[in-house]
Amino acid sequence: xxxxxxxxxxxxxxxxxxxxxxxxxxxxxxxxxxxxxxxxxxxxxxxxxxxxxxxxxxxxxxxxxxxxxxxxxxxxxxxxxxxxxxxxxxxxxxxxxxxxxxxxx
Length: 105
Fold this sequence. Notes:
This protein is 10% helix and 44% strand. By secondary structure, it is mostly beta strands. The protein has a single domain (2-7, 20-96), classed as SH3 type barrels. The strands form three sheets. It has a five-stranded antiparallel sheet, covered by helices on one side. A three-stranded antiparallel sheet has the order 6-7-8, with helices on one face.
């Protein structure tokens, strides 16, 4: 079960779960600060708790199939199926079921 605090209307007019890309695009284009104060937690095997945090300022593009991030001049593609949690400031706006609440620091 996925949970999201951003409702989305599907083509049939019913409430539907937005895709991760839709959530990120909404944050990017319709919130103050865009993605700069967002934090995306991804599945990263071997990292503590198997989660890695990506600061929104490193997200270069919200592409159709993956996030494109650039940090220290290196570009990385992160498929959406690896995303586990999205935060805007301290607020969790999207989380995959079973994902522990990630904390800063």
